């Protein structure tokens, strides 16, 4: 069976968690891709057997580096695996709902020249589309971990191809990622998706008022995009987070479109990422955002981008622990919300 990604093997799964007598870990319950004649057949079999969610890693940092940011987002998926798989399988979450699908690994990931990096991001876009379109077509909900926010373009394009509709996206992010289409990088995934028809509606939550250029804001406004700023909610307290989430969910439902839930880890205070910040939001507010959007909109995927363990001030081991635990909590917020 020819695959557009590298599947998670039983060996890698076993290396990612530690069983304990008298307990059942999520790692003992998640599903792996079954053998089949084709990738599509394997996904269809997994869906028929009870899988609802497909967990996928993207092991790249081309997009952030092409945007003149720091590398390290290629490590997020490996940081997440032990943090998630060592959690308990119990009455709140079985784990059998999850297909631990595999990893998308760029054909090239060693360029240093900006233009070459942007060309490699274009190639990665096609890999993401090829790997994700059958996942959506099989009726599975992708949970995509790692890589830069450039991968929103591939995800939105794959979903549109499979669902025959543009998507409405909500993005928790201090940056709109709606910059000029100057060559592909992590700062313009949504503007490229808007241009190719994959993005039909766009809202940014937590946009930092001084981390987006006027040209960026004008382009976003011309598209019809909207936002709640970080300063409105967490600094000036002009409205509550709960009111903002309720209004956003209402907007998304009103579009009648399938919904993409996007989250850039650099929105979270002191989270190791390509653009870490001390002036971000608490992790639990980010988890509440994911939970609320998953419960109150017609969401079809979750994308958690830009976590970069190597960017932790205390070193790589601390970064793996922090990013891994963060991602595990955000994934569980999505999974648990979908159980209701």
UniProtKB/TrEMBL annotation:
Q: Which family does it belong to?
A: Belongs to the arginase family.
Q: Please give the SUPFAM superfamilies that the UniProt record associates with this protein.
A: Arginase/deacetylase
Q: Where is the composition biased (Polar residues)?
A: 7-18
Q: Which Gene3D superfamilies is this protein grouped with?
A: Ureohydrolase domain (3.40.800.10)
Protein name in UniProt:
Formimidoylglutamase
Highest taxon of the lineage: Bacteria
Any idea which UniProt keywords this protein has? Answer: Histidine metabolism, Hydrolase, Manganese, Metal-binding
Pfam families hit by this protein: Arginase (PF00491)
